[in-house]
Amino acid sequence: MWPKIIVLSILLPFLNGQLYFPDEKSGGYVQMQKEGPSEPILPTNLTELRGTTLYEQFVDKIISTGILKLTVAMEKALTAASPNNYESIVFAPVNIAGALALVLLGSNGKTFDEISTIMGLATGVDIHNKSQLVHEQFGRLLEKLQITSGFDIGRQVNIANAVFVQNNYPIRQIYKNTAEMVYRSEVLNVDFETNPKSAEQIINAWVSERTKGKITQILNETPDSSTKVILASAMYFKAEWERPFFDGSTKRRPFYTNGRGAKSDVMVEMMSNGGLFPYYKDRDLNCEIIGFPYKGNQTTMYVVIPTNSDKTKLKELEDKLDYKQVERLVANVKYTGAIVIFPKMRIDTTIDLKKSLKNLGVRSLFSPAEANLALLSPGKGAPGTNPVIGNSIQNPISVNTTGNDVIIFNRNGEVVNCTQIFNPKSNVSTCEQVVTDSSTPQKVVYKKFGNKVGRRIDGEITPRIAETLDNVRQYLNQQSNAERFENPGLYADNVIHKVYMDITESGTEAAASTSISLSRDGGRVTVRADVPFLFFIMHEETKTMLFWGSVNTPTPNFK
């Protein structure tokens, strides 16, 4: 039996804001009171998110555009794969891309080509020879998304990755090092072979911890004993609205799945708000778009509603959309006075992405005979070491200097112990090392104090471990050409993506210091999301797509 890997992708957006909606009988007059300035604070330019060179900025653009392309393509594929084309769909593109990046990291040959293509990396960048740059910048992008998405309320986005490996199954050290340093992934050993139930419990416990207990289970059944690797990507998102919505006016209203001209057979809890929001009406696509910024104005939920929407018109709009049109819609929004009604929603769904990924061209990954994950593992019975000699980083050593085991290696990859190398006339070590027991690789200097050795951090450095992956790939390709290469036989059995989304009116920001009065006159717009709509959540500076949803009937709903 061929050894299997399972790819898991977990999403948890928890949208925590307050929405106040006026009663339609009130004549449409809204008084909104809000702490802070009446005019929205526009996002500042976060240049630190961008690469330091023009080429790195170019790669940043390729990555974010690739995620957007993946978003639109995945939405169409999920709709096509659904037995009911009018089902609501919600997924997290950046989360899926993170899981695919872990696979790309370990892939070669046809599998490498297919995944780099679906991620939009096949053109514009020399991915075969410079994959280290792409991985480093994608890892940096994920980290920056977590740090800068919500300035004054702490982190809104928490992304976690893990690689669960069968006990004693060889994983290349270079893959492990890169997954840990670039993607901050955890590489954990479990026993699929003799105790798969325990492995299931360990993985579900990891998911529960990383999603703050909101998702307690990603594996609904015990993995097969032939499973060798499970790649998991979890994402937790919690945010408050920049312009808070207020309690007190949420009420059950009709939702018109078949359009407002047809009778509604379902009720949903609708919330309301009024104020200045990013808004644009597009005549070419015959739709309107409105944005709800989150605190810090770095992340926005955009809602797109077709004119006279129903489930058929929404599907027609989705069929027309491509990534350039999504970019155009966002680029054209302007802050406009608006009265809004929007449904309170809770979505809990699990999607197997295997069929959709195959429809998008990722086929070899799921074939035992064709999958090539040779950079993840050399195969059963082989040592998990890097076959490339020279500039490659060899297996690092562990040195206990402060009571904790830390991984240490020097800049040129030689395995040395700097705690033992001192100039006879100096108490400072003359050799240079890098330590990876912190969030960022750092240069370390050792100094003697009597018979003890102290360690001092001497500045952060940029990790370049992924650089050797290209050398490994070239080496394996040479072996393949010489017919000396044996495929390790790892393949993906399925790709599981779990979504939990909660949009509520909970929250307490309603202090009054400034008020805005809006009425239904010619200078204001009314946006009613009581018909089918799509929405997406985007990080503004990087234009990275965090979430995408297509809603035909919100949940929960009531008859």
Structure description:
Residues 14-49, 149-155, 385-416, 436-441, 457-467 and 506-522 have low confidence and may be disordered. Helix 2 (93-105) packs antiparallel against helix 3. The protein has helices at 54-81, 93-105, 109-118, 131-148, 173-181, 196-210, 311-320, 323-331, 354-359, 467-481; strands at residues 4-16, 30-34, 89-91, 157-166, 186-190, 227-239, 251-255, 266-282, 287-293, 299-306, 334-343, 345-352, 397-400, 405-410, 433-435, 442-449, 452-460, 491-504, 514-518, 525-528, 533-539, 544-551. Strand 4 (157-166), helix 5 and strand 5 (186-190) form a beta-alpha-beta unit. The chain is globular, with a radius of gyration of 26 Å. Among the domains are: 4-24 and 52-240 and 348-380 and 466-499, Antithrombin, Chain I, domain 2 (2-Layer Sandwich); 397-460, no CATH class. The longest helix has 28 residues, at 54-81. The protein has ten helices and 22 strands. It is an alpha+beta fold and 559 residues long. Strands 3, 7, 8, 9, 10, 11, 20, 21 and 22 form a nine-stranded mixed sheet that branches. The protein has a six-stranded mixed sheet with strand order 5-4-6-1-18-12. One of its GO terms (molecular function) is serine-type endopeptidase inhibitor activity. One of its GO terms (cellular component) is extracellular space. Residues 1-17 form the signal peptide.
Largest sheet: 9 strands, mixed
Distance between termini? 50 Å
Helix proportion: 10-25%
| CATH level-four homologous superfamily name of one domain | Antithrombin, subunit I, domain 2
User: Which outline best applies?
Assistant: globular
- Are there runs of 5+ residues with pLDDT below 50, and where? 14-49, 149-155, 385-416, 436-441, 457-467, 506-522
As a whole number of angstroms, the C-alpha radius of gyration is 26 Å
CATH topology of one domain: Antithrombin, Chain I, domain 2
Number of helices: 10
